[in-house]
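Limitations
The structure tokens in this dataset are predictions for the assembled complex, not deposited experimental models. Users should treat interface geometry with appropriate caution, especially where small molecules or nucleic acid strands are included. An illustrative entry is reproduced here so readers can see what is and is not provided.
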Amino acid sequence: MTTSVDSKSGGALRTELLTLSDEEFVRLRTLIHQRFGIYLADGKKLLVQGRLNKELRSQGYESFAAYVDDLEKGADADKLLTLVDRISTNHSFFFREEDHFDFLAESILPELVNDGVRPDELRMWSAGAADGREAYTVALVLRDFFGASVVWRRPVVLATDISVSSLRTAVDGVYPLEALDTVPAKYHKFFTRVAGARNGRGERVRLSDRIREMVMFKRLNLNQPSYPFKNRFHVIFCRNVMIYFDRETREKMAHRLCTYTLPKGYLLIGHSESLGRSAAGYAYVRPTVYRKWR
Ligand SMILES: C[S@@+](CC[C@H](N)C(=O)[O-])C[C@H]1O[C@@H](n2cnc3c(N)ncnc32)[C@H](O)[C@@H]1O
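Predicted assembly:
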């Protein structure tokens, strides 16, 4: 254990920094990998130590050893969920990797309409949705494509993530004002300004109910043998998620996603990700775009 001085309190408050040994890090990494598929490289040790220190303290732990012991014993599911919440990267933004949304509006949706699929029959899945911006972007594009007269009787976008805190933000649909920076102007009418949380400072925006009602959020660990869905999807957005998994986990997951894709449906992955040219039952269409033909 090392001692650090809290600079904000001018040294008056001394906090004990719990240190994570190499051996404890490896045990923690194994647990996270087995349960969530996320692989933490050696270089992440200090990051994990930093992100978990406050959490361990708040749970009453005096050392990482005791914490890892409890997790290995399967202490309680909430502890593991809190752990993954702390170590996962939940960064996202509206219209991220925008060409996917152009492709949705210009190719996928016209084709589905041509095939006789009605708007409220659509099934889109944002898998690894973080704080919901990806799923809401899909909803905005659908709303724009089909127009104001379409009544969405049920949510047509499913958004799932393992991170409880991200999902909470997602359900609220409230974001910092700066989040609008990446949103094309024609969509700004679907956001209203709300007062900031901190004494009215830090202005925020909220998505309109019309858009929020198009999306349903659920907690789901993608690294499990099957998913609890009765119906398959026209498009799965699984972007900037598999990047955290090792190759074997990625391959298994791609196979699994394929079983939940409708024939002729699509899988879109992040721009820095790849599944190779012939992946898991999907055919390669172009970089980051895969299609299931049968
Ligand atoms: C960087 S964000 C990507 C968000 C969004 N898809 C995008 O591209 O902007 C990665 C998300 O994957 C989620 N994630 C990581 N492992 C997961 C797992 N095993 N099951 C479900 N979600 C997971 C994280 O919680 C995080 O919110």
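Some entries come with short summary sentences. For this one: Residues 99-114 form the longest helix (16 residues).
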